[in-house]
Amino acid sequence: MLKDFFLNEVQNGIKEAIAVNKLGSMGLNDEYTLVIEKPKNPDFGDFAVNVSSLARLAKIAPPMIANAIVEFLPQTTYTVSVVGGFINFKIKDEILADIVAEILEKGVNYGKNQVKNKEKILLEYVSANPTGPFHIGHGRWAAMGSALANLLRFYGHDVFEEFYINDAGSQIQKLGNSLRIRIQQELGLKVDFPTDEIERKNYYPGEYLIPTAKNYLASHQGVNKDNVEGIPLDELCEFAKAEMEAKQQALLKDFRVHFDKFYSELDLHKSGKVENGVKKLTEQGYIYEQDGAMWFKSTVFGDDQDRVIKKADGSNTYLTADIAYHADKFDRGFDRLIDIWGADHHGYIARVKASLEALGYDSDKFEVLLGQLVNLVVDGNEVRMGKRKNMVTLDDLIEEVGIDATRYWMCMRNIDVTLDFDIELAKRSTDENPVFYVQYAHARVCSILRNAVSNGKLNNEPAPMTETELKEIENNFDKSLISKTADSAKALIMKLEEFKSVIALSAENRTVYTICRYVQELAQEFHSFYNANRVIGEDKDLMKARLALMIAIKTVLKNALDILAVSAPEKM
Predict the structure, then answer these.
(1) How far apart, in whole angstroms, are the C-alpha atoms of residue 215 and residue 213?
(2) Is the confidence at residue 4, as pLDDT, over 90?
């Protein structure tokens, strides 16, 4: 990456200047931090390093420090100027040519596998109850989680994606009871869900269970008005759960979300791992009894209060299973755990971290990304959602705006910021719609490349070049040609090079929205370049240079959109 290159140049220059006593009292073992940035005035250069902070060590003025360092910079592929304590770098055409050539050479691998310390990461996200369709909040976790997995994998990590099925709680019994009512209604019985608000919370009155009731009756021909009450609740629970899980998983697949494992909480309990976790904590002295309940001494590990893990009636709390589940993740050999949770689970982080420390695991290897919800906006008005009232589901949203728009919009704000999803804007085929703007840039580049080898539409003009010549640009590009378009394309080429640092920073910071921001900026640079410069023309060398640039743009846009699992259309 260019920023790293120039920082290394300055750091090497500092060492050489110290060696010949040109940096005052500064020594080789002195610690310092330098920051590289783009000058606000582009006339100064492409990058700038402020060395003024070294004055406290060198005991000399910043301009003297900068000039002393510059003496030892080779300046073979760049030129240097000093303004105050700033060392400004202006790159030469050779660097621009190298950037384009690297993209053409690496193709789908450009920006890939930069990580120095590869980790085996388990990324858990969505993990919804199997009690109904996904709401649009689940859609955000699905889009962001899968994009983050793609990003971390692209960066070089080994990523395992997991969905934790919450199928061991009372919500499954509520689902079974709700299905019984829907079956009774299908049979013509005059029954309905309670109208009392408190009692109604023990059911799922959404209409999505009506098809499930029809399916149950179709597969159980002997059920009628007289024996419907006798259907075992467990049977109804299992049938409804299986249908909900199948629908959820089918939607995830359609939404371009892949999970390596769907992990059942019920199976976790049956395996004995939950009770074994309680046993281990007890043996290590971190469990005590009070008021008939069993408490975990989580305050020993920084939590604000101790936590109940087994109630007085003998039943486990949600935390009990979560302790066992996260311990099991480490036991399966993962180096790092990353969970995506809703913001309302903020207080839960300290409890899980405390349990991991108590069981002997490194809690610093456990990360939680807290996500805010989605405000769905239709005609300027927010749409309410929820399983127990009128619901706007992820299915509904995808049907309305499409998979690409849904995924892109879900990813384009940081996860800790509430997202306003404007349906009308997301459907619009204009530059105002970010996903259209980016996809159109890719399609436009593809159109240029097609036109380069297509016969002219007027007077049967010959094609500007052959398919073989275009392939030659991609496979054996003459870097010297970049000088033909260096001045007009410099900003665009620099933006292409920035992709590598965006990947690194996005992966390290666990941010996906920065990829969206980058492709929008790249699309803007491309559109500006294209509007000011003709790509296909009579000067064949200039045309080759600009077509090489088009291939590079297409490559980087496609690589970035693949991370987001958003399509890169060749025609629009």
Answers:
(1) 5
(2) yes
Q: In DSSP terms, which residues pair with 380 in a beta bridge?
A: none
Q: What is the percent of the chain where pLDDT is above 70? A: 97
How do 419-422 and 336-342 pair as beta strands? unpaired
Q: What angle is formed at CA 336 by the lines to CA 333 and CA 339, rounded to 5 degrees?
A: 115
Give residue 387's pLDDT. 40
Segment holding 77, helix H or strand E: none
Residues 52 and 58: their CA atoms lie apart, in Å, by 10
Residue 458 has pLDDT above 90, yes or no: no
Place of tokens 């692209």: 154
**152, 188 Cβ separation under 8 angstroms:** no
- List CB contacts of 109: < 8 A, sequence separation 6 or more: none
Alpha carbons 398 and 567: distance in angstroms, whole number = 15
Helix (H, G, I), strand (E, B) or coil at 380: coil
* Lookup: tokens for 412: 């384009």
Q: Is the pLDDT of residue 450 over 60?
A: yes
Q: What is the average per-residue pLDDT within 37-47?
A: 89
pLDDT of residue 380: 79
What whole-number distance in Å separates Cα of residue 162 and Cα of residue 334? Answer: 12
Tell me, what amino acid is at 85? G
The 3-state DSSP class for residue 161 equals strand
**411 neighbors 563 (Cβ within 8 angstroms):** no
Say whether 484 sits in a helix, a strand or coil.
helix
What's the pLDDT score for residue 382?
A: 78
Two tokens, residue 503: 């990947």
Tokens representing residue 77 in the block: 């592929």
As a whole number of angstroms, the distance between CA 337 and CA 353 comes to: 11
Instruction: Identify the band that residue 388 occupies on the pLDDT scale cut at 50, 70 and 90.
Output: very low
Question: What gap in Å lies between CA 532 and CA 70, rounded to an integer?
Answer: 36
CB 342 within 8 A of CB 373: yes
Task: Give the bridge partners for 382, in sequence order.
Answer: 377
Average pLDDT over residues 105-127: 97
Tokens of 442: 């890719």
d(CA 13, CA 33): 14
